Amino acid sequence: MGEDTESSKVNHSFLRDYVTEADVISTVEFNHTGDLLATGDKGGRVVVFQRETSGPRINMMETPTGWCRLVVSVPASV
């Protein structure tokens, strides 16, 4: 599986120039109803997303190993 070294250089250059350690998401949490999803990064920023009932739906389930599984459903009209 040969990797295109030219495109690899472009991708790494982009990441090095625009992504810092502070941008790395370090936590993801959601409330018990699945209506709110919060992400936090190493820079101390927190972003909270609220589910829209008329649009795409995301269901979150915890697996037996403790991982969370995201299931995204997008209505045909969206």
TrEMBL record:
GO molecular function: protein phosphatase regulator activity
Organism from which the protein derives: Hucho hucho (huchen)
Keyword terms of this UniProt record: Repeat, WD repeat
GO CC aspect terms: protein phosphatase type 2A complex
Protein name: Uncharacterized protein
SUPFAM superfamilies according to UniProt: WD40 repeat-like (SSF50978)
InterPro entries (UniProt xref): PP2A_PR55, WD40_repeat_dom_sf
Keyword Repeat part of the UniProt annotation: yes
